[in-house]
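Protocol step 4 of 6: structure prediction from sequence.
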Amino acid sequence: MRNSKGSVVIISPALRKANNGNWQTAYRWSRFLRDRYRVSLATEWQGPGARKSPECMIALHARRSAASVARFALAEPRRPLILVLTGTDLYRDIRSDALARRSLDLATHLVVLQDQGLNELTPEHRRKCRAIYQSAPRLRGGAPSRSTFDAVLVGHMRTEKDPLTPMRALERLPADSRVRLIHIGEALDDAYLRVARELQARIWPGVKRYVWLGNRPHGETRQRIGRSHIMVISSIMEGGANVVIEAVTAGVPVLASRISGNIGMLGVDYEGYFPAGDDAALAALLERASRDGRFLARLRGQCAKRAPMFSPERERREVVTLLAQATHKEDA
């Protein structure tokens, strides 16, 4: 152990108030590193100014953190610059945005959050990249409702998360369905707000099928996940969703859009996929899971086999190793 701690800055476009995946990743990594480094969290790095530059920068998001990445690379060209690639980076921005592609070039190390993400990179960028799966502590699930089959949807409402597909799926369920959708997350524009309010007010025969809770604290969200029968993740792009990990580590199976980011989390042979944007296929899966105990148990078993990949001990070890190798301090 070194006598004095080096300094690390973690740049995240979103901090605690946003309560989203970027913030959860940045905060968790800061905890992993604090016994070895002086860690600061910021939305932007303006340059060293009167202070010394940090020993290392970790930046989340190639496009949104591009200015900070460029400043650090110019000010400290010999210091490690670790770029963590998000879903919008991998599956959109690095294909079309010059600033995002420049961030890939400037970074000394790249990180993707599931192994399918490596396939989106050029050979040159893949050589300096590794996959580090995110994590969550195991959570003993609570007792789910007996009168309804609760599917939880977690995420702020925006295009990339495609919340309208599970909303539309509710319309396709048979009249005697027990499925209820518990939706956690803010509506980030008026169109989503209007749809959510209309569904929230609607009563189907025998059941209120849509319950919108808005933005909730992280701890409460995890408890809600743990008391659900199943999770729905309907995104059209994901880098490696925290909410999938939080479901799996709570013993809750997942119904997921068949996209690269979800396949990287749940495996190519997982049985709980539906085509992205296909509300009819999602409705059929929800109804099957609610009525077919063997199918639900099989999904739960498949998720349980993935759970060891999402242990905090494993993620912590890989993050610490990355920093030690990047800063050439293998004894850190």
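Step 5 (inspection) to follow. The chain has 13 helices and twelve strands.
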